[in-house]
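Narrative of accomplishments. A recurring question from our advisory board has been how the design workflow behaves on a single, concrete structure rather than in aggregate. To address it, we present the structure tokens for one chain from the evaluation set, followed by the sequence designed for it. No filtering or post-editing was applied between the two.
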């Protein structure tokens, strides 16, 4: 059964590694946010290149999606968890850009990748925090597509105050030119190959002066970023349900499309654990 959290209690901090002694993004959030999160949220920044973090929700058995279509993503996995939406809003708030794969965009035909869209009740506090950090009013949405399959009428990609970049291949750009792009969106050819590799994404972020980017999936994009060694931190919400797998059901895991041997898999260090009832909020650094 999905949990609700009517009291909006502060997240319980079970583990918090000491902050890194480097430049960081986040820090002094409005008191309402810091009280709810259980302290400051800071992400250390690389001095010389963009920092890339990701945020996912998964079941106990590692399922992040029940389908690749318009249902079966985040809220079915989290049980529409309010604390999960809160943490998503915080991460969007401190990011210069939110990076999503086109499959995730297709699975959310009305969603906008902003703090206000995921947690409207925290909009005022998030906007105040962004302003105090000197960030643009909204993070830029960066959509990664090889095939250029991004609906030109997607309402979450047309808000006048949300910059949108569609990063694609030569093939994708010609499809987009033919079919049309969301009003105001920029199309950038960042690859002349079959996909947009992790290096091309990092180069794009650097060119756009992005210091902190948040990848919100999906699992194929995340796997490409992990395979390219581009991911710095991973925030994972563990939702207390077991979904299972069977041949007749679509089930996607956290990373899809790449499989690593034990000797080459990326190992991470846990840096923070929080709890809201039976949901765990895990944060790993690579
Ligand atoms: N639980 C969670 O936290 C969470 C988070 C995100 C998504 N989801 C769910 O995951 C499901 C979608 O999974 P998915 O793996 O299909 O998502 P995805 O990685 O966003 O989509 C794959 C598609 O994105 C584009 N893409 C991804 N990586 C690319 C790369 N390196 N270069 C070029 N294009 C790239 C391609 O689009 P083109 O086909 O246009 O080339 C590819 O077909 C949905 O149900 C969604 O709700 C869950």
């Amino acid at each position: 059964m999905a949990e609700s959290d009517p009291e909006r209690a502060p997240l319980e901090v079970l583990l918090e590694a000491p902050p890194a002694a480097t430049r960081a993004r986040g820090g002094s959030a409005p008191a309402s946010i810091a009280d709810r999160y259980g302290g400051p949220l800071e992400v250390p920044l690389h001095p010389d290149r963009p920092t890339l973090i990701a945020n996912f929700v998964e079941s106990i058995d590692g399922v992040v999606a029940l389908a690749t279509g318009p249902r079966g993503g985040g809220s079915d996995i989290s049980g529409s968890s309010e604390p999960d939406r809160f943490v998503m809003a915080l991460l969007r708030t401190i990011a210069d850009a939110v990076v999503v794969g086109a499959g995730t965009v297709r699975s959310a035909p009305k969603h906008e990748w902003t703090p206000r869209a995921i947690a409207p009740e925290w909009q005022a506090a998030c906007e105040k925090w962004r302003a105090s950090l000197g960030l643009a009013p909204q993070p830029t949405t960066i959509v990664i597509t090889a095939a250029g399959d991004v609906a030109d009428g997607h309402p979450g990609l047309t808000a006048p105050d949300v910059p949108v970049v569609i990063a694609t291949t030569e093939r994708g750009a010609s499809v987009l030119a033919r079919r049309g792009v969301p009003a105001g969106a920029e199309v950038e050819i960042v690859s002349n190959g079959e996909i947009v590799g992790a290096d091309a994404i990092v180069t794009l972020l650097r060119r756009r002066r992005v210091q902190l980017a948040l990848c919100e999936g999906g699992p194929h994009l995340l796997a490409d970023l992990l395979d390219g060694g581009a991911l710095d931190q991973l925030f994972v919400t563990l939702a207390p349900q077991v979904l299972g797998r069977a041949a007749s059901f679509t089930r996607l895991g956290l990373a899809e499309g790449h499989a690593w041997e034990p000797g080459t898999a990326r190992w991470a260090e846990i840096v923070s654990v929080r709890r809201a009832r039976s949901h765990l909020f895990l944060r790993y650094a690579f």
